[in-house]
User: Which sequence fits this backbone?
């Protein structure tokens, strides 16, 4: 095997040397691993350690090169980005604005390409043993660790400055069983049909494999969602959730490499591979189902329930008025009042509210559009009765125009490939972050709740074409599982019907002050508006699609579950090896997870 030669092509002199007793080791310190030690790690993982440069680096080195042409062609391809150690899905998380470090493809080639928050090295792991070696190395040398499955993360949790990345994207195993028996189950009691998934398999790959066996799972609706990663560990919503619950509700077992594990003699072992289910390490099992990704260890495999393929009824509707007509926001209220009945009928899906939509002939419209998926039925007449009161009311309202249609689909696989996962990849590679809130059934069934929500949404300032995203994935089985599934999932999910999301951005040339102004406006103005609909402490937000600078994130993301989660974190990772933005235990560290905060 050839020696692995490593070189660092970035400036570190400007970074002050931190206190080694409370901070991660940095490249400019004596504690930083030597080239020989990095070579030893490379050998231990069979030559799969790579030095990482930001994805746009070839275009700053030579914009006419073949490498730059490839990067440019693939820049917005989510599947390509998932496989690149030097790429994340949302480019703002590749930059480190506090240190004025970035490497954007949009900026001039002569501008310096700097490492930013992109890891310095990546262990492109192929199996669980590789993960163990990387975890042990990071622990031994006090190096910041970052875990990347696909980089499909709105909090930037798969990137960290001066870190060692564990990239699980190459782990693609999938195994179906007719009756899964968790390790340690009494009398070999099985849980029924299930599938065991390796860490790097994507939703797109899972759907393709399961459809051949006439099976399906509760999963997301983007090509690069890594079901075994932050998706399921954060809870994992789906338009199938009103039918079968959250993805985490259907997790049966995890195999996970932890920072340490408790043995009978209370001895801590580094980088151990453990099984977590209802019978073994049940506290860890509880935490992994909703407690957040990148926090308790590196998942190598997860086993989830599978279900027989089902037919669906697809419903869609456009609700349109002239822009600025007050009738539009009344229609928005009426639509939200109808959502509890939709989820009762095992319907879930997506909608957008676009208050200012430029249209033909200099017209400007306000439009609400939805597509819902009603599981396990082909009866369009029966499902139509769910929407009939809404359609009648809107059609009787002056200046409100509606277009409603419904049609059956023979299978989940056909629905998702023809309507949602169209093509081979999603479009990413932009600068974006989210803020959001969950809204409850109690609100939407109350006398003034829908109007209060619509009134709040109307108070935001919108640019032409800017939508609000609504995700109807609560209610139904999600609510019913409140008394059946004990997990770390935010308890607010059991009361929620809809998850409403806003997107914010800035240009690649935005200064730190300009970026901070956008964040401050969300923190001080926009997020409090959403919180005020039901009260800041009532519902909270979905951890995977929330504000990455969320104040009081502990309560917003986990509510009453947080104290137990923090205790489990201290048991399994007392030194804080696994730290991710606004995740459990991150309050003990600075924003980049590099130094502990003095208390």
Assistant:
């Amino acid at each position: 095997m050839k020696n692995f030669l490593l070189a660092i092509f970035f400036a570190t002199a400007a970074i002050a040397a931190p206190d080694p007793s409370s901070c991660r080791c940095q490249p400019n310190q004596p504690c930083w691993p030597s080239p020989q030690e990095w070579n030893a790690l490379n050998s231990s993982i069979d030559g799969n350690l790579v030095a990482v440069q930001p994805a746009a680096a070839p275009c700053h080195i030579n914009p006419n090169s073949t490498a730059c042409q490839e990067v440019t062609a693939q820049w917005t391809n989510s599947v390509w980005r998932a496989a690149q150690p030097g790429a994340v899905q949302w480019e703002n998380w590749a930059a480190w604005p506090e240190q004025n470090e970035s490497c954007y493809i949009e900026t001039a080639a002569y501008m310096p390409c700097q490492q930013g928050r992109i890891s310095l090295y990546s262990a492109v792991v192929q199996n669980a043993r590789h993960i163990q070696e990387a975890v042990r190395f990071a622990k031994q040398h006090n190096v910041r660790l970052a875990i990347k499955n696909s980089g499909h993360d709105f909090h930037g949790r798969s990137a960290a400055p001066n870190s060692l990345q564990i990239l699980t994207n190459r782990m693609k195993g999938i195994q179906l069983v007719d009756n899964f028996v968790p390790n340690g189950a009494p009398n070999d009691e099985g849980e029924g049909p299930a599938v065991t998934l390796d860490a790097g398999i994507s939703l797109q790959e899972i759907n393709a494999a399961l459809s051949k066996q006439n099976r399906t799972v509760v999963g997301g609706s983007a090509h690069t969602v890594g079901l075994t990663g932050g998706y399921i560990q954060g809870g994992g919503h789906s338009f199938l959730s009103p039918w079968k619950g959250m993805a985490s509700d259907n997790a049966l077992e995890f195999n996970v490499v932890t920072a340490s594990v408790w043995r009978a003699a209370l001895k801590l072992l580094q980088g151990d591979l453990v099984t977590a289910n209802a019978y073994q390490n049940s506290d860890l099992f509880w935490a992994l189902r909703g407690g957040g990704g990148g926090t308790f260890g590196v998942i190598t495999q997860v086993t989830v329930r599978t279900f027989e393929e089902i037919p669906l009824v697809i419903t869609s509707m456009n609700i349109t008025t002239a822009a600025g007509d007050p009738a539009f926001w009344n229609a928005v209220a009426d639509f939200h009042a109808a959502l509890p009945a939709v989820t009762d009928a095992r319907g879930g899906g997506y909608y957008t509210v676009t208050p200012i939509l430029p249209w033909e002939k200099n017209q400007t419209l306000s439009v609400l559009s939805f597509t819902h998926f009603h599981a396990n039925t082909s009866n369009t007449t029966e499902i139509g009765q769910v929407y009939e009161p809404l359609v009648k009311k809107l059609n009787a309202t002056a200046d409100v125009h509606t277009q409603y249609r419904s049609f059956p689909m023979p299978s989940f696989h056909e629905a998702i490939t023809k309507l949602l996962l169209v093509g081979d990849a999603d479009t990413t590679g932009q600068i974006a972050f989210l803020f959001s809130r969950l809204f409850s059934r109690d609100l939407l069934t109350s006398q003034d709740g829908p109007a209060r929500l619509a009134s709040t949404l109307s108070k935001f300032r919108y640019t032409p074409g800017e939508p609000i995203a609504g995700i109807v994935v609560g209610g139904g089985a999600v609510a019913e599982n409140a008394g059946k599934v004990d997990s770390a999932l935010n308890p607010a999910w059991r009361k929620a019907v809809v998850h409403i999301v806003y997107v914010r951005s800035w240009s690649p040339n935005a200064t730190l002050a300009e970026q901070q102004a956008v964040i401050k406006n969300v923190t001080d103005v926009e997020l409090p508006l959403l919180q005020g609909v039901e009260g800041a402490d009532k519902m909270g937000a979905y951890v995977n699609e929330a504000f990455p600078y969320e104040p009081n994130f502990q309560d917003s993301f986990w509510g009453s579950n947080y104290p137990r989660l923090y205790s489990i974190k201290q048991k399994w990772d007392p030194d804080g090896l696994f730290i991710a933005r606004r995740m459990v235990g991150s309050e003990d560290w600075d924003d980049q997870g590099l130094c502990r905060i003095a208390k």
